[in-house]
């Protein structure tokens, strides 16, 4: 039987601004990436998201991003590898403190948005992020874009790495995600998105925007928690994957 982890970016509310249906979505996923205050989230939201993740026995990960609340961490910034290292260590530490107060453990780290995409291609940034994760704890799993500079850097330093694929994003011929600034970057048809993840899990490939097949490894599937129909899609994805005899289990 095939198996795959389903992860979702949650805890992305801030102050009076509410984003996503955190508790409801947690019932359909196996790993959660919790925003750490730079691109989204605040201390109260972080604490509550950790509490809910523990309630539903979902594996917890830090979701460090660029310090850009206005742009939701999706705008690139010219940062040095040292700055990337410091940002990641800082944000892991913030979430780790909440976990310590609840006698819980962190499973993984997954960079967010522009930081994630920059590290997928920039070797120096990728190595800095992998080093940051390793230095905090070599037991953490690093989530990164399948077959990217980030997963390569994680494996090189000795981290356990989960190669991540996306249900609602289109791919380029080089295996990168189509930038959100370009047309057709997002897949809005649920059935199309489901068929894409089934193909990635079962066949290890995805059809790029250029019409070529790209080989990739699908250890974990990302579902975005900020989408308008995120909860309904999470429900449908779980149902369809089980029907395809794909077991949904946290990554090990």
Describe the protein in words.
Keywords: ATP-binding, Hydrolase, Nucleotide-binding. Belongs to the LamB/PxpA family. This is 5-oxoprolinase subunit A. GO terms for molecular function: 5-oxoprolinase (ATP-hydrolyzing) activity; ATP binding. The protein has 8 helices and 10 strands. With 252 residues, the protein is an alpha/beta fold. Strands 1-2-3-4-5-6-9 form a 7-stranded parallel barrel, surrounded by 6 helices. Helix 2 (43-55) links the parallel strand 2 (31-35) and strand 3 (59-63). It is globular, with a radius of gyration of 17 Å.
Protein topology:
Elements: E1 2-10, H1 22-25, E2 31-35, H2 43-55, E3 59-63, H3 81-101, E4 108-109, H4 113-121, H5 123-136, E5 141-145, H6 149-157, E6 160-166, H7 190-203, E7 205-207, E8 213-215, E9 220-224, H8 230-243, E10 246-248
Parallel strand pairs: 1-2, 1-9, 1-10, 2-3, 3-4, 4-5, 5-6, 6-9
Antiparallel strand pairs: 7-8
Helix pairs in contact: 3-5, 4-5, 5-6
EC number: 3.5.2.9
Function: Catalyzes the cleavage of 5-oxoproline to form L-glutamate coupled to the hydrolysis of ATP to ADP and inorganic phosphate.
Organism: Metasolibacillus meyeri
Tags for this model:
252 residues, alpha/beta, ATP binding, hydrolase
The percent of residues in helical segments reads 25-40%
Structural class: alpha/beta
**Order of helical and strand elements:** EHEHEHEHHEHEHEEEHE
Total beta strand runs: 10
Biggest beta sheet attributes: 7 strands, parallel, barrel
Radius of gyration, in Å, reads: 17 Å
